[in-house]
Amino acid sequence: MENNNKKVEQLKQFTAKDEGQPLTTDHGLKLTNDEHSLTIGERGPTIMEDFHFREKMTHFDHERIPERVVHARGSGAHGVFESYGDASDITMAHFLGEKGRQTPVFVRFSTVAGSRGSAETVRDVRGFATKFYTEEGNYDLVGNNIPVFFIQDAIKFPDFVHAVKPEPHNEIPQAQSAHDTFWDFVVSNEETAHMTMWHMSDRAIPKSFRTMEGFGVNTFRFVNANGEAHFVKFHWKPVFGAHSLVWDEAQKIAGKDPDFNRRDLFDNIEAGNYPEYELAVQLIPQEDEFKFDFDILDPTKIWPEELIPLRKLGKMTLNRNTDNFFAETEQIAFHVGHVVPGIDFSNDPLLQGRLFSYTDTQLIRLGGPNFHELPINRPVCPFHNNQRDGYGRMTINKGRVAYGKNSLQNNTPHVVTQNEGGYAHYQEKIEGRKVRARSLSFEDHYSQARQFWLSQTDVEKQHIINAFSFELGKVETIEIRKATVDMFARVDRAMAEQIAQNIGVTPPDESIQQVEDQQPSDAVSILKNQVPYLKTKKVGIIVDTNSNLEELVTPLEKEGVVVELISDKQGRIGQREIDHTLETASPVLYDGLIVAATFEGVVPNRKVQTFADEIFNHYKALGYVSVESMDKDYANAPGVVTGATEFVEALKKGRHFDRTDATG
């Protein structure tokens, strides 16, 4: 007991009570602003003098050892990018300069909030990071599956992540945003409104990495050989289109197979079903920077595709799995500052902070400055400089010179001109005072949130309402629930009123004005852009010894569908091996189900009914071998069919959201 008391007293000396205290740096300096980085002018670049930003971001970057602070749960694969044509009119980037030019790549997909051991089908943003091993050096396109972000300035990134991570007093909940601190951050920072709408949509529960869009999020620059610049945003478009789970299904998959997305990626690459994505860009000429009614440097805003159309530049194919998950997927180090000639930066305040944060993160996570020498990070082109020593140094540099300028080594390694392939920053004229402020053009937080809502189908709108209701239903503080409802009444009053009714708070205050309607952008809707497909979809067939397997399996396999046989016991039926029993399989892991068995026992039949119910409630294709065998409750329901041809068509369509009595 005495020792315990001593320990308590010892800990008290290091206990800080922050409530009611002024904000300071780690060294006690009181701060006048914690909202904005120090920039040159309201729309200018962040400057190195900003000691507060660097201290705050450095501490955040070094908070986890050794896994990533964010994006810890990831999966990766190798592939190749092939250029569609010569893009030298917009960029000097060599890998985009010739039709058919191929560049090796490595892609890492990830969730953001959860730890390495968390499930993959949680409601979360997904990372979509690509390393191009070009002849001019490594180029990293580091993005997400949602084109906007929660915050405008990187100085608030530690605050956002602290809010969405498990709450520090009890480390609960894991990999979820359905808790008080996240929603307190949302209502306390109105700039989150647009991204929160995306987060509550089906975009946050993608069906697979193979059917997930990717976005560069930030505004970059393309520069051509003549010095002509365009602002640019990057898009990855999956060839199979974007597809999502439904929420009940996503939660159940998290329990049945927490590795669902990485397993899907790995298994399909092993089977030769290579995921494909087209790279496209949106371009705004330098002189048109102020042409739009939104600020193009604001990372909480999209550039509507109806205003700024996409230009496709090439296609990426992922064709090889990793040989060692840790050595490749875990040790790969991305950085938005890894660019090649022809790709440059804008003054997007979130991007400016990322340019510091990524390298700082790798220093602690990978043990020092030589992370570029790990095999997965090494460029395919030679690299020469005067860096030496440090943790993990692999290169054995010869000679006595490790500095420049020098005469002992003929001043080598030496710099080169831009015409010789040297990187030169775009010479943007910058004027302004050193300030901690944000341009007034960043202050419209609700117009594009409204646009997103108006762009959704009725089904997608209901999913958004359901998502808000679930998430806020987990919030313990009634005042935060109420504040959230009031905040999103600015986006859509009817939506907010329905959410209020579902979560037990009063309707939005009458004084709150809904923002004006915006022109919808169909490009942001998943269901308006569905790509029907069959190849690689997975179907479970429940069979017994009386099932005609070839009649069931052959039409599906001809279409490239993956078929798994399920029965009450393992073994063989005819020439085929049973893949799973009713105990080891789960309906949530399939895109469709065929019931082709009638077991004698009551228990197996009850389990079959459970399988059929799950498939039906998640709007998936459900097949029976005959009308007589069909569940009478499902007769005439959309996507419930008999016959192989009919089932193939139902499966190809995907979700049957016109199934009004489904509950998923």
From TrEMBL:
Alphabetical list of PROSITE patterns matching this protein: CATALASE_1 (PS00437), CATALASE_2 (PS00438), CATALASE_3 (PS51402)
Enzyme class per UniProt: oxidoreductase
Protein origin, superkingdom: Bacteria
Reactions mediated catalytically: 2 H2O2 = O2 + 2 H2O
Crosslink feature (3'-histidyl-3-tyrosine (His-Tyr)) location: H335-Y358
Active-site feature positions: H71, N144
Keyword field contains Iron: yes
Single GO molecular function: metal ion binding
UniProt name for this protein: Catalase
GO cellular component, one term: cytosol
Record lineage: Bacteria, Bacillati, Bacillota, Bacilli, Bacillales
InterPro entries in alphabetical order: Catalase (IPR018028), Catalase_AS (IPR024708), Catalase_clade2 (IPR024712), Catalase_clade2_helical (IPR043156), Catalase_core (IPR011614), Catalase_haem_BS (IPR002226), Catalase_immune_responsive (IPR010582), Catalase_large_C (IPR041399)
UniProt keyword terms in alphabetical order: Heme, Hydrogen peroxide, Iron, Metal-binding, Oxidoreductase, Peroxidase
Domain Catalase core: start-end pairs: 24-412
UniProt cross-references to CDD domains, sorted A to Z: catalase_clade_2 (cd08155)
Pfam family, one: Catalase-rel
Organism from which the protein derives: Solibacillus isronensis B3W22
Stated family: Belongs to the catalase family. HPII subfamily.
Gene3D superfamilies from the UniProt entry: 1.20.1370.20, 3.40.50.880, Catalase core domain
Single GO biological process annotation from the record: response to oxidative stress
Known role: Decomposes hydrogen peroxide into water and oxygen; serves to protect cells from the toxic effects of hydrogen peroxide.
Cofactor entry: heme
Binding residues annotated for heme, in chain numbering: R68, R108, F157, R354, Y358, R365
Enzyme Commission number(s) of this protein: 1.11.1.6
